[in-house]
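FAQ

Q: What does a record look like?
A: Structure on top, sequence underneath. For example:
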């Protein structure tokens, strides 16, 4: 498939796909006319790249990781090294810390929203009572 088709199938812009190529994350074959051509495997690869970016990994780390993953199922390949496992464990721990921090922030916001909502509700009732008293 050509780059535009890969962009449509993966939901990633052609510009991003070209960037992935410059970073060594994606390789397409060139036709005699110079157009990029990708196999069906590329859709899984691009989706995996997007997931790794979303997890906070940078392109250098992703470039180290991708050769150690199979495109079809994302399982480790025989190229995985102990250092890579250590690096990935550290990344997972970093993500877990971020999740913990986000949950804590959400909990604080929930408390603020609950308190603010109760105040708004009480204020609305108070105004309604005052308006009714002024009419009666």
């Amino acid at each position: 498939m050509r780059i535009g088709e890969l962009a449509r199938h993966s939901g990633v812009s052609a510009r991003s796909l070209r960037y992935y190529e410059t970073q060594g994350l994606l390789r397409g074959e060139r036709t005699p006319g110079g157009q990029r051509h990708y196999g069906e495997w590329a859709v899984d690869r691009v989706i995996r790249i997007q997931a790794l970016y979303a997890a906070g990994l940078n392109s250098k780390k992703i470039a180290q990781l991708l050769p150690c993953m199979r495109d079809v199922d994302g399982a480790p390949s025989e190229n995985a090294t102990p250092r890579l496992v250590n690096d990935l464990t550290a990344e997972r721990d970093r993500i877990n810390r971020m999740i913990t921090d986000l949950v804590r922030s959400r909990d604080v916001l929930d408390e603020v929203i609950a308190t603010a909502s109760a105040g708004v509700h009480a204020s609305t009732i108070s105004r309604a009572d005052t308006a009714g008293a002024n009419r009666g």
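Q: Is there anything notable about this one?
A: Residues 8 and 133 are 63 Å apart (CA to CA).
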